Amino acid sequence: MLSPSKLTDNPWQALGATHADTTARLDGVAPNSLGRTPASLFHRDSWSAYARILRRASPHRPDLCYGIEIGTANMKLAACDAGGAVQYSERVDTAGFSFDEIVDAVCDLVGAADSALATKAPLGLAVPGIVDSATGLHQTANLACLRGRTLLPLLRARLNRTITLGNDCHCFALSEAHGGAGAGQPSLFGLILGAGAGAGYVVDGRLVLGRNRAAGEWGHWPLAPALLARYGLRSLPCPCGASACLERYLAAPGLRHLHAYQIGEADVPLDALVKRSDAGDSIARASLALHAELLGAAIAHIVLAYDPHVIVLGGELSRMSHLYKDVPDAVRAHLMPGLQAPPILPSHFGDTGGARGAALLVRQYLPASLELS
Ligand SMILES: [Zn+2]
């Protein structure tokens, strides 16, 4: 008989296991290991078997998976069916929450969804930063209450279900690859430009994660020294421990920094900066042009490393329409002759993409082999 407790989970679920155990599990379910890359997110046979388990555990909606994105200011839950359609959603404000309050909020959201949908669905979690694959400790600069803590053991004990952990930018990219701006494309690079800068890379509908689940940590690539010198920019320290990381110049605080560098005017709201640029303010235009130039150069490096078929932008800065006009030209200017710049598109799902992608992530980590007892 199949047992949910014996499903092979995301290695990030294997907290408390030895590093060797974790690596073994990773090798066993690696969704993108060579020769095993499926064309679809869903292993149909595995999903059918898993669905039988879910029908016993949750007879009313066995097709549903929950996804929760834990952000710096709020937490969002999306319940998605097997086709990726959001059937239920909810969000709560969590600004300033402690670690224990975050745990409580996750449990409250899941409990409310269980009651509303009369089911008990598996859960995917999208969190910022990375998780140490050996210790399970969260390493994140943007959500300080998680740093150095582990979420999964507490949540699994309280929620008693399969829980899959993923990076928020990875989940965003996965969501946009399935029914979003990158639907039908062989590969997609999803960039989030908000409080920080991160990314996820999806090939044939499945996330490429890498050994440390760190693939796509593009925000911590260094800005090219030649660009620092050309524009006279300072090498800014980054909370990750390095300096001159792309995030420090290209995320929302980075754009404000570039504008402050231009004229010494700090903390200008970005919507005000755009309005001033649209009204013909030459300094505001210069700030946005410098940002687009640096972003284009950084995306050109993505093309050289990953050569994605499409790039999808999310986060606060993705609402700035000039990026879709100015950045492609900047990308082309930094590519060698003969290389085409990929289309750069706004996200389809907006700020619900992370939660939806977390639900899809549960399906990506469907067991490659179900244990029998
Ligand atoms: Zn960094």
From TrEMBL:
Gene3D superfamilies: 3.30.420.40. InterPro entries: ATPase_NBD, ROK. This is ROK family protein. Transmembrane segments: none annotated. Belongs to the ROK (NagC/XylR) family. It holds the Pfam family ROK. The lineage of its organism: Bacteria, Pseudomonadati, Pseudomonadota, Betaproteobacteria, Burkholderiales. It comes from the Bacteria.
